[in-house]
Amino acid sequence: MTQAKIGIIGGSGLYQMEALTDLEEVLVETPFGSPSDLIILGTLEGMRVAFLARHGRDHKLLPSELPYRANIYAMKSLGVEYIISASAVGSLKAEVKPLDMVIPDQFLDRTRSRISTFFGDGIVAHIAFGHPVCNQLAAVVGDAISALNLPEVTLHRGGTYICMEGPAFSTQAESNLYRSWGGTVIGMTNLTEAKLAREAEIAYTTLALVTDYDCWHPDHDHVTVDLVIDNLKHNAVNAQKVIQETVKRLSKNLPESEAHSALKYAILTPLAKVPQPRKQQLELLLKKYL
Ligand SMILES: CSC[C@H]1O[C@H](OP(=O)(O)O)[C@H](O)[C@@H]1O
Ligand SMILES: Nc1ncnc2[nH]cnc12
Fold it and tell me: What is the mean pLDDT of residues 157-177?
């Protein structure tokens, strides 16, 4: 049974959504283990939404330790069709300032120690990922930001999110390399989520909230947690406003998304030949094709 069509993943600094009412905390077990925390179901702008603190509400999980598959699978099992993912990022461009918001439309993968697929072990699928975020959902978030006219915030529509492994921040040589590759912002989590969301046929967009200039900018201190904490707090307040305005807009019109049929031409293994335990494990993702 669908409990929420909209999922919100809160990153560093965003551990709860204050405007939610009629709260229910749910423990969702998945074939991939437990999610990062209990999922909070609540009402926002008349819609049921599912909120998950990515690192747990007490921020106890490293980017490499996150149960990415359980998080996305849990959202899917609640009926989520759209995920808005709020994330703290460093800026790789002078014109993208701390407190700005970026809606990336591309990712570059610098992760190396995490599983970023539901497939394998007897079932092969290759999803299309040329456009890794849902452009329709991203446009709704962008329009919400523009309409809010937040002081001190410039919106950047589009851009490339470099997803590094962490937990240490980058070296200056790495930061400069990412700049030379055309990176716009850098973080440690969103590419993995975006891939799994696409495999789960959930439309996904990132709301990237800038906290720092990483370590490349000659006029700014290198990023440290201490340095970004105030910006994280400021961004968390703004992110909640943006998410509320986005949900308000989604409550009037849920956009079509190619993500919702991402598996249609992706699975290579004949489903009759998939080992039964795997089929059971992935039933939630596969059932419309069985
Ligand atoms: C702010 S310190 C680095 C930490 O912040 C980002 O987290 P999230 O993507 O969950 O908002 C980044 O990915 C690191 O995990
Ligand atoms: N400079 C940075 N590098 C990686 N992740 C970040 N999250 C916030 N700032 C970051």
Answer: 98
pLDDT tens digits, 68-112: 999 999 999 999 999 999 999 999 999 999 999 999 999 999 999
Query: What is the residue with the minimal CA distance to atom 6 of ligand 1?
Result: 88
DSSP annotation of 259 reads G
- Best residue among 186, 227, 229 to mutate for probing ligand 2, ranked by most atoms within 8 Å of CB: 186
As for the ipTM of the complex, it is 0.99
Atom 2 in ligand 2: residue holding the nearest Cα: 90
Residues at CB less than 6 angstroms from ligand 1? 11-12, 54-55, 63, 87-88, 166, 187-189, 211, 225, 228
Any atom of ligand 2 within 6 Å of the Cβ of 199: no
Does the annotation flag 85 for ligand binding?
A: no
Report the distance separating Cα 134 and Cα 194, nearest Å.
10
Answer yes or no: pTM beyond 0.95: yes
Q: How far apart are CA 244 and CA 249, in angstroms?
A: 9
Report d(CA 118, CA 285) in Å as an integer: 9
Q: Is residue 1 pLDDT above 90, yes or no? A: no
First to last CA, the chain: 19
pLDDT at position 2 = 83
Q: Give the torsion sign (CA, 20, 25, 26, 27).
A: positive
